[in-house]
Amino acid sequence: MFVFILRRLIQALVVMVCVALIAFMLFQYVGDPVVTLLGQDASPEQIAQLRADLGLDQPFFVQFWYFLLNAVQGEFGLSLRQGVKVSGLLAERFPATLELALVAAVMALSIGIPMGVYAALKRGTFTSQIFMMVSLLGVSLPTFLIGILLILIFAVLLGWFPSFGRGEVTQLGFWSTGLLTAKGWHHITLPAITLAVFQLTLIMRLVRAEMLEVLRTDYIKFARARGLSSNVIHFGHALKNTLVPVITITGLQLGSLIAFAIITETVFQWPGMGLLFIQAVTFADIPVMAAYLCLIALIFVVINLVVDLLYFVVDPRLRVDHS
Amino acid sequence: MRNWLARMGDTDIGYSFRHSPVAMAAALVAFTCLFCALFANVVAPHNPFDLATLELSDARLPPVWQEGGKTSYLLGTDDQGRDILSALMFGARISLMVGLASVLLSVALGVGLGLVAGFFGGALDAFIMRLCDVMLSFPAILVALLIAGVGRAMFPNADESLAFGVLIISISLTGWVQYARTVRGSTMVERGKEYVQAARVTGVAPVRIMARHVLPNVLGPVLVLATIQVATAILTEATLSFLGVGSPPTAPSLGTLIRVGNDYLFSGEWWITVFPGAMLVVIALSVNLLGDWLRDALNPRLR
Q: What ipTM was predicted for this assembly?
């Protein structure tokens, strides 16, 4: 158990250092900050002086070490485009993205699981065929198109929902939330649906497949033979056993929700980290790109780690094998 | 030609194809799109890139069945008076080109690395597989965005071909992992078989064994994966273009067309966005269905 955790931790650390190295290389090889600061016609002495002042004459690994020290403290310098501290920019945008991802995840789970259960139990009926068709469409429709179609139908043609921004936000300390007002919920509806569709189809297909698998097992047959009601069998025994992989996948998908939020945020002009990132990419704003990269990598690594450990807790077989 | 077709029809795959209406419909749609895209300069009613033929007075015309539509512009025109139908065909050409090129590149990369990992094993194998794990733990679109972004930052004044190069590389660098894993698995199985042993004993060089003996035997699953990946690559390209880091505006792919049309959504000119979007979905869906069919047809266990 201890060895397992330690190995996972070291692995996570290696991945983080690799990502930090990539982020550092961005600073090193894309654009020269000295030229940016001094302009084209600076004298060689001035350039050398500034290089020494900025620590750019140090060996590669010394520079990387300072970069790591700063990165751990969340310090990535100033945004080239906005001239503001990157850490502040990200902190300001983080709540919007997280709220969007969480609402979408809840939506996908609460609709996807029942749909999957239904499609598995009532296999071959008209409704479950429709569910499967819809899920195929959900896989083939790229996220940005779903967003555009929703905007076209519900914002432009019907006028039911707003199509951009967060609406009203309430400030709770450092956290700005849009979930306390009706207007905020009104604004989050379309983006959250857009983000949820792909996850929903994924969860539905997964639940259906797992459910079909479990329903074939011996203990379900035995439960039938014992004369338990089909509700108890389906929801007490079968569904419970399908939920382990579903929870794992959903946990892993939370990270990709935050990444896919880039697209949704662009379509709906949602003021989150994704929108910040895509603006940084189009303007080659390296500090913002590097900071976003490190933050996302951190989120992914932490989620992967937690899911791995949870697996260990949930599935007793793993524990026996290792000890 | 007829003889060849008849022989094709008699094979197992041909049989399965003739008995699957979904596969036939998907193939028909996919090849129609491919045809229109390949011969866009012949089939298309207008040339959207010929500035001399553009009439600003024809800008933002609705499709022909709506009031104000003109019969010469079946699906309407965009903000610069370009015919949407023609722009679709030229756009599909670019989308398909980028999609196919990036799939080819990632197949080459993935199959190569997978063969090496599976054939030699050891530290090299462990390293390549770790790399795969790391790649897989990040969503493809994020990796592609990052590479495209770095490419943009490194070559700020890139011309068209360089921009496409960066785009194709960024998509293929996210797609190779699946091939590598599949090929590695089947290579490890093939490596222990007698014909490989025999080749080794007779002194054939490892590279030659991999290329001539192992490779043909591990390509089956790769073919299925590659078909489905074409759809994924086209969608990734469209997403990148929509986000503004894909195809340059001078050579618009379907994603670029959607991005441009998105600005006119609120003024009610839906056709500038909806038609490229529909085209994209039709291409992706038909390729996906073809890939699903091919997987079932090539897998003897499912028959």
A: 0.78
